[in-house]
Specification:
This protein has 261 residues and is of the alpha/beta class. It contains eleven helices and nine strands. 41% of the residues are buried.
């Protein structure tokens, strides 16, 4: 009987700790680093956050539709700003920055200098994430617009050729445990994929033969990450958000390849 009581109490305490943790909706590109930060926060005495990761636009729509969220961390500033405009959050905090890179299959001799030529090649498959649903796709479109300024017509050609392979609610899911970007290039769905540099490095950890290619300065596009607290003052959500802006958290973000504002 005593063993049963201890087991029940332990279960109840575990459930209470889980319930006390902030509900955090965060961009998919933050999954690895936020998982690390959640563990660090709990080690420092905070309640372990409960994460849901996905395309920022999809998460914004879920929260706007009534899904409970304490903290929303987006790969852009505009999605969290919608909650400020609606009076549901006080302000957007810019907490990290990313850059676009190319993830390239083995065997292609792509460099920053010839990246645009390769993206325009009709015999190669160019992949992007889904615009509007995922800021990564929006940033890719911005990059295409810059290409158009260099070569009139190039932007339209790139937009027409870009295959939206990730980032939408109905995008095909990779096999269990696989990195989505490594999977789409490794499986031949794309020869080149436009995504965040941090995503490229994670993909290369899974498939080392894949290549990371920086975009040339004239095509470079940066991504500002914004954070809003959707729960009240003094809440666990507010405490976790403050932690994300702290020096220890910033050190983890920097170590994972994110630039800091």
């Amino acid at each position: 009987m005593r063993t049963l009581i201890v087991a029940v109490c332990t279960s109840l305490l575990s459930g209470a700790a889980l319930a006390d943790g902030a509900s955090v909706h965060a961009a998919g590109s933050l999954k690895t680093v936020f998982t690390q930060l959640g563990k660090l926060y709990a080690e420092q005495g905070g309640a372990a956050p409960r994460f849901e990761f996905g395309p920022s636009g999809v998460l914004r729509d879920k929260i706007a539709g009534g899904v409970k969220s304490d903290v929303f961390a987006s790969a852009n500033m505009s999605h969290p700003q919608t909650f400020v405009d609606a009076g549901k959050a006080a302000k957007v905090e810019r907490f990290a920055r990313n850059e676009l890179c190319l993830l390239v299959r083995p065997g292609l001799a792509v460099t920053p200098g010839n990246a645009l030529d390769h993206m325009l090649r009709r015999d190669l498959k160019l992949g992007i994430s889904t615009p509007k649903a995922d800021p990564s796709g929006d940033y890719a479109v911005q990059m295409f617009e810059r290409a158009d300024a260099l070569r009139p017509g190039a932007g339209r050609a790139l937009l027409a050729r870009g295959r939206t392979l990730t980032g939408a609610a109905d995008s095909p899911k990779p096999p269990g445990g696989r990195n989505a970007y490594a999977w789409v290039v490794d499986s031949g769905q794309a020869d080149l994929f436009v995504t965040y540099c941090t995503n490229v490095r994670l993909a290369k950890q899974e498939v080392p033969a894949l290549q990371e290619v920086a975009l040339p300065p004239e095509l470079a596009v940066g991504a500002d990450y914004g954070l809003v607290v959707l729960s009240g003052a003094g809440s666990e959500g507010e405490r976790f958000a403050r932690f994300l802006l702290s020096a220890p958290a910033r050190a983890v973000l920097a170590a994972d390849g994110f630039a800091l504002p």
